[in-house]
Amino acid sequence: MATQKGAGEDKYSIPSLERAIRIIEYLAGESVHRNVTEISKSLGLPKNSVFRIARTLLGFGYLEEEGKAFLLSSKFFALAYKGLRASNLFLQSRDVMEKLREEVNETIMLGSLHGTSITILEVLPPFEYIRFQIEPGHQVPIHASAPGKAILAFSAAKKQEELLDHMSFTRYTDKTIPSKQAMREEIAQILADGYAVDQGEEVKNIHCIASPIFDYRGNPVASIWASGPWFRLVPEKFPAVGKIVLEHALLISKKLGFAPEFSPFFGEKGLS
User: Fold this and answer.
1) 201 in the same domain as 99
2) Could you say which of 55, 177, 188, 201 is the most buried, measured as most Cβ atoms within 10 Å of its Cβ?
3) pTM exceeds 0.85 for this model
């Protein structure tokens, strides 16, 4: 593999640190765990060097390990949270999130995909006395969360299959989706509705409704969702709230350059 321009040319550079940075950047672009051999082959680095760096990063909590394979941990997101707040996604989402909170008066959250989890980037609490609260940086599983299912459903076929193949379908409550086949059935419903729901699938008695946020290429890069207690965000409200969440998600998507009228998902729904 060709050396990156500038890498190793500065007399003050530290080779081992350069390798660590390359490994981090490589893993940041992966949605599934990668083992030492895969990392070594992709980057053209010695296996023993990759192994030592990976174990060091793991020891400091910056990687998570699954079957001797590695993926960046949520610690990176916590570390970069202040920077993320200034990113284009935050800048384009904040005012829309506030408007959504005013309309539904529930906890409004913004999150993005990382591996087989959704990392929460921003949280706006409702004006209710009883509220669902969670801190930015927390991760929720794709298969047991409305934002995860929303992003999964609208992902390209290849990406969707890769994510499905790496899901463990851990059961958190009796509402958790238990299998790949059940998830495929859920995906069909999400595509028809334009939003996903979570009826206490990870946290009992907490309901969520989410829609994906798309970039200019039509890729679901994040999700926005409303969360509330079961006695307030009842199933009878799902269609109405789902439509509102979808409308606000599309507002953010348009700011990022997405054109719903040309999308195979939304063009026919008249949601341009």
Assistant:
1) yes
2) 201
3) no
